[in-house]
């Protein structure tokens, strides 16, 4: 195979790990590849809170432009960063088998503060979803903005007078930097498509589409489709406190979804179990259930804030 498949990636350690997964899957089939690091807007401005930037696509836009301008042939993303509406002429080429989906808390000294009534802990995260869920559980705590790649965020946590910070399990474990002083947040529902990696390419690039089709994981593709449909139906994006998780067990889809107000005081949830063969519109139906419960009011409030 003479054609070299150019794989676009962000420059962070985690992004490069993801790109290498796709690279290895392609080379295992005999394809020739080349990694092309590209800096994203989200990597350049590490100060402004994501919700102020208008985060929809901030980590994917530069790669998408490189793809459309034919500088690369494939772009690799954390699937949770990808807008539910792809740019024209770009399609999903493959969704890799999903990794860990949970969030975790990295704490400074101990987790005793979680059980101390009245204690005002200082917790850091850049995620509006994590902030809302945390405040729902710990309304007295103070939340702080924390930007940057996972290494940068861990360094900032060490230097600040904070009690802890929230990360994705997958982000730390994939590059082997999960600290011992961390605990899984089993009660926190993840972002739609968290833990999944997606490769995208140009719609008319049949060569790359066929190359990637061999490692598309159908179970992950179905689960993340449901989660992202839930997000899209609620008109959400990365700056909206929407959580969703779907998994398949014994040919049954188990789905949980949540919508929080920004301060955590408003909350709606839905859970469904349906045969996998009948689950294609499960995300939309679950989102409509949330809206009917009263979630439409929270969505309207969030839009007004933006």
UniProtKB/TrEMBL annotation:
Entry annotated with the keyword Transferase: yes
Domain (Porphobilinogen deaminase N-terminal): residue spans on this chain: 5-208
Cofactor(s) the protein needs: dipyrromethane
Top-level taxon: Bacteria
A Pfam family: Porphobil_deam
Catalytic activity, EC: 2.5.1.61
CDD domains: PBP2_PBGD_2 (cd13647)
Enzyme class: transferase
Keywords in alphabetical order: Porphyrin biosynthesis, Transferase
Keyword Glycosyltransferase: no
Reactions it catalyzes: 4 porphobilinogen + H2O = hydroxymethylbilane + 4 NH4(+)
GO molecular function terms attached to this record: hydroxymethylbilane synthase activity
Porphobilinogen deaminase C-terminal domain location: 223-291
Associated pathway: Porphyrin-containing compound metabolism; protoporphyrin-IX biosynthesis; coproporphyrinogen-III from 5-aminolevulinate: step 2/4
Function, as annotated: Tetrapolymerization of the monopyrrole PBG into the hydroxymethylbilane pre-uroporphyrinogen in several discrete steps.
Assembly, per entry: Monomer.
The family this protein is said to belong to: Belongs to the HMBS family.
Name of the featured protein: Hydroxymethylbilane synthase
Organism: Chitinophaga hostae
Gene: hemC
């Amino acid at each position: 195979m003479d054609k070299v498949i150019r794989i676009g990636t962000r420059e962070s350690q985690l992004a490069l790990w993801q790109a290498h997964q796709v690279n290895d899957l392609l080379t295992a089939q005999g394809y020739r590849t080349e990694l092309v690091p590209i800096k994203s807007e989200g990597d350049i401005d590490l100060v402004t809170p994501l919700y102020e930037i208008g985060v929809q696509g901030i980590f994917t836009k530069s790669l998408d432009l490189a793809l459309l301008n034919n500088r690369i042939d494939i772009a690799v993303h954390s699937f949770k960063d990808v807008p539910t509406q792809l740019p024209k002429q770009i399609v999903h080429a493959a969704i890799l088998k999903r990794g860990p989906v949970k969030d975790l808390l990295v704490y400074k000294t101990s987790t005793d503060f979680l059980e101390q009534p009245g204690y005002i802990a200082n917790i850091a995260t850049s995620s509006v979803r994590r902030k809302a869920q945390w405040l729902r559980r710990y309304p007295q705590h103070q939340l702080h903005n924390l930007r940057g790649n996972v290494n940068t965020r861990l360094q900032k946590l060490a230097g600040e007078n904070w009690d802890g910070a929230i990360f994705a399990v997958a982000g730390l474990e994939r590059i082997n930097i999960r600290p011992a002083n961390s605990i899984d947040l089993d009660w926190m529902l993840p972002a739609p498509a968290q833990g999944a990696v997606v490769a995208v390419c140009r719609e008319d690039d049949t060569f790359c589409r066929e190359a990637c089709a061999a490692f598309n994981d159908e179970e992950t593709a179905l689960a993340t489709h449901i989660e992202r449909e839930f997000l899209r139906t609620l008109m959400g994006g990365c700056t909206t406190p929407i959580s969703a998780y779907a998994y398949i067990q014994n040919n049954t889809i188990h789905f949980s979804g949540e919508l929080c107000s920004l301060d955590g005081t408003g909350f709606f949830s839905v859970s469904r179990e349906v045969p996998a063969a009948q689950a294609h519109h499960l995300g939309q139906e679950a989102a409509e259930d949330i809206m009917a419960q009263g979630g439409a009011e929270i969505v309207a409030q969030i839009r007004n804030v933006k």
